[in-house]
Design brief:
about 350 residues; alpha+beta; Transferase(Phosphotransferase), domain 1; Phosphorylase Kinase, domain 1; 3 domains; five-stranded antiparallel sheet; three-stranded antiparallel sheet; 15 helices; 10 strands; about 15% strand; nucleotide-binding; transferase
């Protein structure tokens, strides 16, 4: 179970195989695992794959990654290990994140970020904390997501509490996804453990009153973002959370940008929910969010398989008739307005809020 990759392959090996085993043993010291869980995690290490099991302990995670490098020549000698500040006890770095919070769960993970469910050690209240890895040279610069959270305060946007930067010593940066001088930005937010995407997957019966109320909340929040001269650019169910009171909250503000008269170019966002002008690298403005809202309304109103959703959304982008909503004329009418191929024909969101679709919602 503790063999290095070269031992498993039956190749020639050296004393660096023991160093690999030290990394595995260290993982067990910090995380309680069953034998089956340990075998699965250790196999991942041997294949050079990452695991979330130590994500809440970034210093330990990176130290273990140093010891359990799949290439034996890249593993440290025992003398180097003993001199490392993690072992020598000389580290002066204190993590505010680890000092203030207990990690309860991992809510999500991206290429350069991870979202934790945490409990504050002082008040025992639960929060979400997003950790973003950035180049240390950029750590002092304003970060787009932090700026958006600080300036966009609305009941339909996940509540921002605080943010801070941590810069571990360079010797901690052993994980290959980090640069030699990587720092971390932490964003503390209100906790919402369920996304609209989760709800869509779990619910095959759709209540029209609930859908109408939720969609009005979405439109109102996006209207607020647009009135602040911003564009979200990545509206989709997985970026919309549901709080404990059942209120929708837009999150993941990294893609938010200013919507000035100088229009944007480039593919930013998730292709499945993009407007045609985004996909074609054309110029675009805030109306791309309106197109995405049209697709989200389809997904809220109709139960679809993954394949059906892909096909229907592509049909909408091609201007083809939408047969799937024929039994919901008010919904179909609104979707066709929101998902106009000509961005200039898409309605402003204040006009959308006065649409007859919302007539039964206060």
């Amino acid at each position: 179970m503790y063999m290095a990759p070269e031992q498993k392959r039956g190749s020639i090996y050296s004393n660096k195989a023991d160093v690999f085993a030290l990394g595995l043993t260290m993982t067990e010291l910090f995380v309680a695992m069953t034998k089956q869980e340990a075998e699965m995690i250790f196999d991942k290490y041997r294949m050079g794959k990452t695991s979330d099991i130590l994500a809440h302990l970034p210093e330990v995670e990176q130290f273990v990654a140093w010891l359990s490098n799949t290439t034996d020549t890249e593993r440290p000698a025992c003398e180097e290990i003993l001199e490392h500040s993690f072992i020598a006890g000389e580290k002066s770095f204190q993590s505010e994140f680890l000092n203030k919070f207990e990690v309860l769960n991992i809510l999500g993970k991206g290429e350069f970020n991870i979202i934790f469910e945490v409990a504050n050690l002082m008040d025992r209240c639960s929060y979400a904390v997003k950790r973003i890895s950035v180049d240390a040279r950029d750590a002092g610069k304003p970060h787009n997501e932090v700026i958006a959270h600080k300036t966009l305060r609305n009941e339909g946007i996940v509540s921002y509490i605080t943010s801070w930067i941590e810069a571990p010593p360079n010797e901690w940066q052993t994980d290959p996804i980090f640069t030699e001088n990587c720092s971390f930005i932490y964003i503390q937010m209100e906790l919402c453990t369920c996304s609209l995407a989760d709800w869509i997957r779990a619910n095959e019966i759709r209540d029209s009153t609930q859908i109408t109320l939720w969609f009005k909340q979405l439109v109102s929040t996006v209207a607020y973002i647009h009135k602040d001269n911003r564009i979200h650019r990545d509206l989709k169910p997985s970026n919309i959370l549901i709080n404990k009171n059942g209120r929708l909250k837009i999150c993941d503000l990294f893609t938010v940008c200013e919507g000035t008269a100088m229009e944007k170019r480039g593919v930013i966002g998730t292709r499945l929910y993009m407007a045609p002008e985004q996909l074609s690298f054309g110029v675009y403005d805030s109306s791309v969010d309106i197109f995405s809202l049209g697709l989200i309304l389809i997904e809220l109103s109709v139960v679809m398989t993954v394949e059906e959703r892909f096909e229907i959304f592509n049909d909408v982008r091609c201007g083809m008739p939408l047969d799937i909503l024929q039994d919901q004329p008010l919904t179909l009418n609104l979707v066709m307005k929101l998902a106009q191929l000509d961005r200039d024909l898409r309605p402003c969101l204040d006009d959308v809020l006065s649409n007859s679709f919302f007539s039964d919602v206060i």
